[in-house]
């Protein structure tokens, strides 16, 4: 029982819940909020610098030739998700309110995860090289595509946003540190790999800092007075529905287009996941002040649900893949 709970609720998830509780009870404001905002920007820059230093060109080149697979993953990430968000608007907007619906649209515009998508693909015995390429490219493309998609989605919703200005800010705050880290990989790569576990704490700490700063601003502006418990429960149901639709679509498309089982695993895990590591820093740029908290809520709920579901799904894929591998070895 405890083992299954550890799979569903890891230490980082518990830390996220704790940070939200602290921000709800002890939000930072005034001068403290300005200090935390500056610390958050520095932490996010360091986060993307380390992401760039970790990125292996050899691993990307190994899977880069599988262009049909990558195009399908990108289509699911940056087209299928946003179309679902818009198509479900008549039901979602009245149910959860405009603030949380904005967060759902933001969730739909984000790139996929990197580490967890690759880890689940490896656990399920899929095409790991292709997963590395797809997940890494999705993360990089998202720096440019996500602000533009958010602009298009908000315009469809009747709001206005400066998409090109947001792209410029994101390039400066996220892409430049990422490129600097990658350019320094020949000198830093071995050190980063040796200290992978320690540096993972930097990744998680950066996200926790973003979440605390965002939720503090939202709580000061009355977040928990405007978002009732019923809306949060309904948000969980909506995230489950959204994930189920995308998982079903990616699995069906993979079979329909004739991909192998190993490649279908990549499509499922890379095309259905959304990145909290990228989404939390981007929200600081794309949304103003107290709007960041509600914008992040759907992403945080979806993040946990996708980890829980994909952990179970990867184990099922692994059990199915073993007999096939054994038969081919005979």
From TrEMBL:
Record-linked InterPro entries: Na+/solute_symporter_sf, Put_Na-Bile_cotransptr
Membrane-spanning parts: 12-33, 39-57, 69-88, 100-123, 130-154, 166-184, 205-225, 231-253, 265-289
Signal peptide: none
Keyword Cell membrane applies: no
Keyword Mitochondrion: no
Keywords, in A-Z order: Membrane, Transmembrane, Transmembrane helix
One GO CC term on file: plasma membrane
UniProt protein name: Solute carrier family 10 (Sodium/bile acid cotransporter), member 7
Organism (species): Geopseudomonas guangdongensis
């Amino acid at each position: 029982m405890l083992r299954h709970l550890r799979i569903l609720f890891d230490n980082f998830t518990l830390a996220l819940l704790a940070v939200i509780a602290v921000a709800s009870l002890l939000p930072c404001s005034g001068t403290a909020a300005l200090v935390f905002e500056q610390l958050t920007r520095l932490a996010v820059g360091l986060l993307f610098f380390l992401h760039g230093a970790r990125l292996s060109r050899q691993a990307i080149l190994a899977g880069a030739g599988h262009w049909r697979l990558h195009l399908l993953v990108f289509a699911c990430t940056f087209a299928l998700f946003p179309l679902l968000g818009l198509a479900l608007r008549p039901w979602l907007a009245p149910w959860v309110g405009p603030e949380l619906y904005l967060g759902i649209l933001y969730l739909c515009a984000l790139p996929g995860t990197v580490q967890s998508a690759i880890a689940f693909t490896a656990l399920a015995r899929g095409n790991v090289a292709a997963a590395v390429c797809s997940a890494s490219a999705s993360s990089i493309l998202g720096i440019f595509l996500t602000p533009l998609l958010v602009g298009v989605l908000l315009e469809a919703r009747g709001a206005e946003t400066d998409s090109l200005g947001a792209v410029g800010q994101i390039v400066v705050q996220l892409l430049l540190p990422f490129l600097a880290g990658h350019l320094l990989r020949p000198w830093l790569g071995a050190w980063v790999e040796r200290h992978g576990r320690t540096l993972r704490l930097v990744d998680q700490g950066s996200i926790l800092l973003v979440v605390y700063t965002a939720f503090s601003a939202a709580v000061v502006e009355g977040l928990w007075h405007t978002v009732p418990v019923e809306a949060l429960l309904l948000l969980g149901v909506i995230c489950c529905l959204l994930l189920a639709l995308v998982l079903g679509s990616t699995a069906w498309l993979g079979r329909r287009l004739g991909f192998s089982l190993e490649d279908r695993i990549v499509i499922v895990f890379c095309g259905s996941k959304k990145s909290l590591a990228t989404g939390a820093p981007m929200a600081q740029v794309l949304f103003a002040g107290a709007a960041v908290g509600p914008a992040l809520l759907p992403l945080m709920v979806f993040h946990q649900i996708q980890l829980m579901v994909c952990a179970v799904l990867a184990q099922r894929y692994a059990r199915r893949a073993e007999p096939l591998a054994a038969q081919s070895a005979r």
